[in-house]
Design a protein that fits this description.
The protein has about 400 residues and is of the alpha/beta class. The protein folds into three domains: about 180 residues, FAD/NAD(P)-binding domain (3-Layer(bba) Sandwich), CATH 3.50.50; about 120 residues, D-Amino Acid Oxidase, Chain A, domain 2 (2-Layer Sandwich); about 60 residues, no CATH class. The chain contains eleven helices and 18 strands. The strands form three sheets. Strands 1, 2, 8, 9, 10, 11, 17 and 18 form an eight-stranded mixed beta sheet that branches. Helix 1 packs parallel to helix 6, helix 6 runs antiparallel to helix 7 and helix 7 packs antiparallel against helix 11. The longest helix is centred in the last third of the chain and has 30 residues. It is globular and about 65 Å long. The chain binds flavin-adenine dinucleotide. The site of flavin-adenine dinucleotide has 39 residues, from helix 1, strand 3, strand 9, strand 12 and strand 16.
């Protein structure tokens, strides 16, 4: 017989979604366990860490966790554009520092953190609903029982799969990245690189995290392309393709690899005694495969709804529904619009990309940022789709809003 623990809320996975859920549930008075399979929080980095300063401030993430960006450069095989803002609005996170800060906040508010603890299975109650999870750690088997389980295990969705509620994501992005020390870094400028040689269904990037270190990566859409992002990345770095050549001498520090769902908001995110959050729930913007701020934001919503439900004594699906309603209301239409742009972008030839960059050149920084963030507010998009002086820009935003076709 292994060890047994009893909690109000058990959260599986201490990524941004899980740590944020643990923080909010503990803050709201619940007895919380946060379970992570790796030896330390964020031991393996699976993300490039781009996010937005406005959200960083809203979450209270400290200033030493990110590098601000104010110039947004794009290149295609024969075109280039840089949109420069007067103030930095984007940021590249120090991923380990940020994720560890998020977990520490949860711990400070009373959550118990179990690392080196790998969740393998679920425990069902008499009604067939989830009642806990079974994990292994170096000492043996541990059973965690809880009134509510939050599956924040990321792409693998370990709890939801064990319950038989979900199967593997079919459409997803695969990304490979080297964090490198480079000779010439412009720490305020990021690069997105598009076209066949960079990625046949996706894009490559250079994201600076300081004035000496950048992350160079390649993302490839699956199943659209069979290209291996790691091989493509090595090739681009060997041949010093496009803006990579501007970096001068580069020496790799560490390698990152990850998968991100791109199946839209297809999953249900609440069941009796169970909530799915972050990548497990598919909460990511398909256009640029951005999910960190959603993981943190909706992790907090999940923690609040779970702890409120426990207090009310009702943890069935209907009682957890406010969580699903909140996040769907906030992002569902935006994610759908971003999906339409992604469908357009995935089909572009190199020549069409060269032309697409001419359209992007016409955007003001705030228009470009709204676009890339999938912040498609209806009135703003309608304005761009109907009043922008350039026809091509009107058409692009018409597509986003499904008008003007
Ligand atoms: C290549 C790449 C680049 C990306 N770049 C960006 C970007 O620039 N900006 C952005 O916003 N988003 C980016 N994303 C997406 C972003 O990383 C995710 O949306 C975000 O990490 C989701 O957070 P999460 O907490 O849901 O999952 P995760 O961050 O995946 O965390 C899941 C946690 O669960 C743990 N776990 C898994 N299984 C178990 C188990 N059985 N038992 C216990 N613990 C377990 C894992 O170890 C991990 O710590 C990128 C993704 C990829 C793949």
């Amino acid at each position: 017989m292994g060890k047994e623990f009893h909690y109000d809320v058990v959260i599986v996975g201490a990524g941004p979604a899980g740590s944020s859920a643990a923080y909010q549930a503990a803050l709201n008075g619940a007895k919380v366990a946060l379970i992570e399979k790796e030896d330390t929080i964020a031991e393996t980095v699976r993300t490039s860490g781009v996010t937005w300063i406005k959200n960083i401030k809203e979450f209270g993430i400290p200033d030493d966790c990110f590098n601000p960006i104010k110039n947004y450069s794009f290149c295609s095989p024969n075109n280039e554009v840089t949109i420069s803002d007067s103030v930095a609005q984007a940021a590249v996170l120090d991923v380990r520092k940020t994720y560890r800060w998020l977990a520490k906040e949860a711990e400070k508010h009373g959550a118990d953190i179990f690392v080196k603890t790998n969740v393998k299975d679920v425990v069902k109650n008499k009604q067939g609903d989830i009642g806990g999870v079974i994990a292994t750690n170096p000492e043996g088997v541990i059973s965690f029982f809880a009134k509510i389980i939050i599956d924040a295990s990321g792409f693998g969705s370990v709890v939801s799969k064990a319950m038989g509620f979900v199967t593997q994501w079919k459409r997803f992005g695969a990304g490979a990245e080297y964090e490198v020390r480079a000779e010439n870094v412009d720490s305020e400028t990021w690069w997105l690189m598009v076209g066949q040689k960079y990625s046949p269904a996706g894009y490559a990037w250079i994201f600076p995290i300081s004035d000496k270190v950048v992350r160079i990566g390649v993302g490839v859409g699956k199943p659209e392309s069979s290209v291996d992002p790691t091989e493509r990345l090595k090739k681009l770095m060997d041949t010093k393709e496009g803006p990579i050549s501007k970096l001068g001498k580069i020496s790799p520090i560490e390698f990152h690899y990850g998968l991100i769902p791109n199946d839209g908001l297809s999953r249900k995110s609440v069941y009796n005694n169970l909530i799915l959050v972050g990548d497990t729930a598919g909460q990511a913007n398909p256009l640029v495969l951005e999910g960190i701020r959603y993981a943190i934001k909706f992790g907090r919503v999940a923690g609040k709804v779970a702890s409120d439900a426990i207090r009310s004594g009702k943890t069935d699906e209907a009682s957890l529904m406010p969580y699903e309603e909140t996040w769907r209301k906030e992002i569902e239409s935006k994610i759908k619009s971003a999906g339409k742009v992604q469908d357009r972008w995935i089909g572009l030839s190199d020549e069409q990309w060269d032309k697409e960059l001419d359209i992007i050149k016409e955007l003001k920084p705030e228009e470009f940022l709204d676009f890339i963030k999938a912040d498609f507010g209806l009135s703003n998009m309608l304005k761009l789709a109907t009043h922008h002086p350039k026809l091509a820009v009107r058409q692009l935003f018409g597509l986003v809003k499904g008008i003007g076709k």
